[in-house]
Amino acid sequence: MELLFTALGLGLLTGFHCIGMCGPIAIALPLNNKSWTTRIISGLTYNIGRTVTYAIMGLLFGLIGVGFSMAGFQRWVTIIMGIFMISTVVFPSLSHTLYRGSGNSKFMSAVRSQLQKYFRQASYKALFITGLLNGLLPCGMVYMALAGAISQDSLTDSVMYMILFGLGTIPMMLLLSLLGNIAGARVKRFVNKAIPYVVVIIGTLFILRGMELGIKFISPPAKKLELQNHIKPMKETNTVLMKPCCEHES
After folding, report:
1. Do residues 247 and 173 share a domain?
2. Which of 74, 109, 133, 217 is within CB 3.0–4.6 Å of 115 for a Cys-Cys bond?
């Protein structure tokens, strides 16, 4: 549960990061300008579309995580995802390679083509679809969030992880759509410097969690051990209860 809050924090920080990456899209959105209410609703519609895409991603990657969990590999997946997060900071070329590889695919070309089609329309439907499509565009911070989603204990937690990440990005992206480029160069530099540290902290939390050191809130013990401790007394109880029956039969 504690790591779900890191998803919200990562999303909030990503919102500032998006000023430089997705800012031009957010500023150029064809919002309904009849009133401030319609503008806000239009902006929220677009951002909810992005969050729905993130939730679907969480579902898909969560299914992979559940498969690892059933195979007994979940703790190792959590450790590997933590190492991956830290590696993208220590070796920036890894993140750039992943970004370029996903961005040059035929699938992404089709996404961009559809994005251009709906971006010209100002209806709520078009804005929602624009948000859905924009959520599919390559983004290093989204990859970090997906690494967190695949490491969750359950499918529900994986989906919630991505939903909270998406919700965390909304405040800054909505303000950006409504007010334009509101953050100065100094704020952008500060956020860009802070992001690597946050990624390393979250990656470290994932590694500690996977190690199952028994540290409350940070590295809880393995659930299998707790289950075994509950099963053992039950077996002993059954043995005691069955004893008089055996004596009676004799």
Report:
1. no
2. 133
For residue 213, which amino acid is it?
L
How many Å separate Cα 74 from the centre of its chain?
A: 17
**Amino acid identity of 47?**
N
- Cα 5–chain centre separation: 10
pLDDT digits (tens, 9 = 90+) for 132-178: 999 988 887 888 889 888 888 789 999 999 999 999 999 888 888 88
d(CA 48, CA 42) in angstroms, rounded, equals 10
Do 241 and 142 lie in a common domain? no
Short-list 240, 69, 43, 44, CA closest to 151: 69
Q: Do residues 157 and 91 both lie within one domain?
A: yes
Q: How far apart are CA 229 and CA 236, in angstroms?
A: 11
Cα–Cα distance between 157 and 150 in angstroms, integer? Answer: 9
pLDDT, tens only, 93-116: 766 666 665 656 788 888 888 888
Contact between 180 and 27 (Cβ < 8 Å): yes
Give the domain extent around 35: 2-219
The 3-class secondary structure across 100-168, one letter per residue, is HHHHCCHHHHHHHHHHHHHHCCCCHHHHHHHHHHHCCCCCHHHHHHHHHHCCCCCHHHHHHHHHHHHHH
Phi and psi at residue 218, in whole multiples of 5°?
A: -110, -50
User: Do residues 26 and 129 both lie within one domain?
Assistant: yes
Say yes or no: 247 and 136 in one domain: no
Residues 86 and 207 grouped into a single domain: yes
For the chain, the domain total comes to 2
The predicted-structure confidence for 19-40, as pLDDT tens digits, reads as follows 666 667 777 788 877 788 888 9
Average pLDDT over every residue of 166-193: 76
